[in-house]
Amino acid sequence: MFLEAFLILVRTERNSGAWCPSKQATTEPEEWIQIDLKTVHMITAAGTQGRFGNGQGVEFAEAYMLEYWRPKLNRWIRYHNSKGEEVCTSG
Q1: Which residue windows are coiled coil (predicted)?
Q2: pTM for this prediction
Q3: pLDDT (tens digit, 9 = 90+) per residue, 39-70?
């Protein structure tokens, strides 16, 4: 499903200020945001924010993981830090 880009922008309350999965998230990577940067880039930071929803509740991702696509390998690769450890951020 393609969504408007503004739904994944931080520091905004537009349309409740968040992208949300279509169903309750689980520990399996069933819901995702995919961004096509068109060319190879080095990503140095990623950030998330919770959703205030105009006072209807505070919601936020308790954890997320990062994966990237390598065209030559034709697969997604889970991000690891410089020590080779898999990174899964948690709140």
Answers
A1: none
A2: 0.58
A3: 888 888 777 777 766 666 667 777 778 888 88
